[in-house]
Prior knowledge:
The complex is a heterodimer.
Chain A: H1 7-19, H2 43-66, H3 78-108, H4 113-136, H5 146-174, H6 183-213
Helix pairs in contact in A: 2-3, 3-4, 3-5, 3-6, 4-5, 5-6
Chain B: H1 2-5, E1 8-10, E2 15-17, H2 27-39, H3 47-63, H4 75-91, E3 101-105, E4 108-111, H5 112-138, H6 141-150, H7 155-184, H8 194-225, E5 233-234, E6 237-238, H9 242-246, H10 251-274, H11 283-293
Antiparallel strand pairs in B: 1-2, 3-4, 5-6
Amino acid sequence: LKPGKTFKTFIFYRFLYFSEGEDITMAKGVWEIKEGEIRRPGLSHFVMTALFTGIGVVVGTFGSLAIPLGYVTAFWPGQAIQSVGCIWYGGWGGIASFIFPIISNAISGSAPLPVSLAYIPGNLAQGLIVGWAFRQFGNDPRLLKSSDWFSFTFWGAIISNVIGAGWGSTVLRLFGLITPDAHLTVFVGWLIGNAVASWILGVIMLKFVSPIVMKTKTFCKGYWA
Amino acid sequence: MKKSGTKMQKTIIGFVPAQSPIYALHPLARFVLYIVTGFLPLFIQTPEISFAFIVIVLGLFVYARVNLRTLKLYLPMMVTVFVFITLTYFFFPIAKEESVIVFKLGKFPCYYKSSMWGFCIYLRIISLVLASIFYFSTNRERDIMVALRSIGLPFAVSYFVSLTLRSAGIFMEDYQIIREAEQARGLNTANLSFGGKVKHFSMYMVPLFTLSIRRCDEISVGLFAKGTEISSKINGVKRADYLRSKMQINGRDYAYIVGFIALFAVLVYLQVTANVFNIVKSPLYNHFLNTITGGR
Lengths: 225, 296
């Protein structure tokens, strides 16, 4: 069962095998660990996570200061770093996903410390979901096939931002930063703004940087190595 | 003297004063102050107290000899947050059942309680944000490390944070080099549209990531060659800590830490048990309410 060449056929097949309950992990692709291949988490993963977090700090801070919307993080390019990081580095990317927003929010002043801490579960989930999806459905981080594009758009831009915007807007409501009546409006604005920004930045990173990342030993075929 | 006092020094993540009386405090005491000032405004609803808090934090900026011009960078964010909160509490008001309406804009009434609550929330956010900016304007990376190690965080965590901050600095340097190279080739980003700027910013990621991957290999090999172990103990013995040995905590620092925590505990206790900082107890709130309703 392979996705068809057109988008419509692909969607059809995608829902078909969801409905039939078939094994959608059949094509491991780049994630397949070859016979004799040993992959262990090590020092290089630790360093790469720190570097990636540093990159996230800069991108997150720059995004917040360049487009100063305060704690409403619409058009926040940092989300792309979270998604792409979890695709490339699995759980290590997940660690980076929730740490860098705390630092970048504090430096840029875009969100106070308590709000940043409350964002943690949302940041973690919105990064991990796409890393899980790419491994689960055997998608290629270089975005070679239509299914890879679909997966990144659906999981990396839409679903992850539904989670992020849903959690984030709820946090803002709990802190009284938005009113209950404004919850839906803020959620929709946040979702659209972040999805667009993260899709543009994410696609560029995956398309052009994935071929390089995949050659390095820090690239994680599993969740930790 | 004054001139040298306000001189700022570049750090990886920003600017700190070259000399400041706040440096006499141990980094742990400064960190505790950050935590206290970073959470305390959450318990304050009255605009007068929030405003006083902002004044105190600004006073700390002056005392610490932080150049206040650095705050200009955050001005657009403060303005947009104000506009956002005002619009939110105007178009999506709370307490709609109340009858006190300040004015009407078309079919949208401006409710008094909603507007005042929005204003209090704005003051609260600015208090929290200023507390955060103050911490990063008065602490170098090594101060942050010492504070984290002093509260007993594992070596791996503090090392991770230091590597993160260092890499943020490296990344910014690389970013600057790429921008200068673009300008040298005649690229003018000022004329780009918003969409063009977003796309252009995205394109920076390609060379920056490539450089980062190379640096990751270099740093990993360097650490491996030095035999670095990311653990708090080496061969069962606690790791020596050079930074902490250079910054010893003394009795005065402990006194400050206890003072900050006690102040926090007392204020939180007063709010939780007696609602001392509740908005309805605010003289300003009640004064405006009486003015609008004519004391009815």
